[in-house]
Amino acid sequence: MDQGQTAAKTSPGLTEALFPVVTLIVLLWASVRIYGDGAASGPNQIALILAAGVATLVGLRHGWSWKELEQGIVHGISLSTAAVLILLIVGALIGTWILSGVVPAMIYYGLQLLNPTVFYAAACAICALVSLATGSSWTTASTVGIALMGIATAQGLHMGLTAGAVISGAYFGDKMSPLSDTTNLAPAMAGAELFDHIKHMAWTTTPSIVLALLLFALAGLFGGTPAAAADLGSILSALHDSFAIGPHLLIPPALVLLMVWRRMPATPALLIGALLGGVFAIAFQPAAVLKFVGETTQPQSVALVQGVWTALGSGFKLASGNEALDALLSRGGMSSMLNTVWLILCAMTFGAVMETTGALERIAAAVLSLVRGTGSLIAATLATCIGTNAIASDQYIAIVLPGRMFRAEYKRRGLHPKNLSRCLEDAGTLTSPLVPWNTCGAFMATTLGVATSVYLPFCFFNLINPLVSAIYGFTGFTITRLDEPPAAPPVAAVAEGSAAS
């Protein structure tokens, strides 16, 4: 096989471009069929690598050398480096925040404040506000989201519904906050202004989040009494016996959210939060730390450091005697994220080969060839974003590639670029956590402890918003042409107020 550069290259035909995708779909179906819930622990990774191999053969046939494909893979994997690093740090943060009593305190107070009847809607609203203030769905899920999942577990609530509420709220803020990277990336790709983009998104986002909150409220009202509700009294008692609970333990999550709100990047903010959790563990939970370490010949000061070190790397294991609480709080550590990192690397390998060989662009071009009117153009944009999220396994590629491909077509049809930027977020940003092997889907499933297939039907906001966007496209509602004056959006004041803050 030639290791050098190849002179002549040709684009794959549509059938060849689709062949690796079809292969992947078949292999993933077989993986789930054979392994069930264990499919994400190895079989799906093998399916992605085999599909990447098929895509590589297509590329070699059309003149790409292995060296060029390898460079494309390295570049594609490099795009996920930040996500992988955040995953590892979130694992460490979960470990020290449980050991230090931060997560137990959040669960303790939440159990007393959040009634099961309003829990799902409240969880969505809380996450929406936090994410709107921070601009980060990942930070929201890995802080308040973890606590909300713990509260739901203790109350015997539906875990898929809870995860759906957390993700719906987290992605509302991620989509609408001017502090969000995707909110800035989408208008940059489409050629729109940031605050024009946010105001235009309000037209599709407002009815979507209202409908989502209504559905979560109905789920709480008519979902019935939790069948598996744990004995809350015994859990509260076990929390008090295992940790020194106090409101001061809420300081680490508050500081992390403050740092992200003040525009500190998520990686260092979460790392500081994880280390601060370790400091709080030594300062406020020495008994819990020493019990976690067990029998040791080390001095107490060294044993305390050892406990924090272990929690950072391998997570925390609770032995309170309460089975429900032990299962709830025995998790975390960087090592807990390694399977997800494996999945992301395999997914990015497949997506990188598809993009390098031009197969991804060929599929998108075929979609564009079906466009006739404005409605079909909007639908094609949404479909391309969703498909790119599934094929390329990365939220940013699902915004950049369709934005680059459709920008000229929107201009040619006299459509304002903010129509395109809105579509990029309505589908590119919001459907990313719905794909199990996408970086966002893998992160949410691992962080919240719920499989993507379980929470997907309940991500009401993420499912409704693309549909609303498509309806607007076919009806022409709020579709702005280049020569039209802007209309006042329904929540413009919210977006502008968030920017001012």
Write the layout of secondary structure elements.
Blueprint: H1 14-35, H2 43-61, H3 66-79, H4 81-99, H5 102-113, H6 119-134, H7 137-155, H8 159-176, H9 181-190, H10 194-222, H11 232-242, H12 251-261, H13 266-284, H14 286-293, H15 300-314, H16 323-329, H17 338-356, H18 359-369, H19 374-391, H20 395-412, H21 417-429, H22 439-448, H23 452-455, H24 460-475, H25 492-500
Helix pairs in contact: 1-2, 1-18, 2-17, 3-17, 4-13, 4-15, 5-7, 6-7, 6-8, 6-10, 7-8, 7-22, 8-10, 9-20, 9-21, 10-21, 10-24, 12-13, 13-15, 14-15, 17-22, 18-19, 18-20, 19-20, 19-21, 19-24, 20-21, 21-24
How many domain units?
Answer: 1
The termini sit apart by 57 Å
Q: In terms of quaternary structure, what is this?
A: single chain
Supply the helix-strand structural class. Answer: mainly alpha
- Helical proportion? over 70%
Instruction: Work out the helix count.
Output: 25
Average pLDDT works out at: 87
Shape: globular
Beta-strand fraction estimate = under 5%
Question: Would you list the SSEs in sequence order as H and E?
Answer: HHHHHHHHHHHHHHHHHHHHHHHHH
Question: Total number of β-strand segments?
Answer: 0
Radius of gyration: 24 Å
Q: Runs with pLDDT <50, length 5+?
A: 1-6, 492-501
Biggest sheet features? none
Question: Would you mind describing this structure in some detail?
Answer:
The protein has 501 residues and is mainly α. It has one domain. Helix content is 73%, strand content 0%. It is built from 25 helices and no strands. Helix 3 crosses helix 17, helix 14 packs across helix 15 and helix 18 runs parallel beside helix 20.
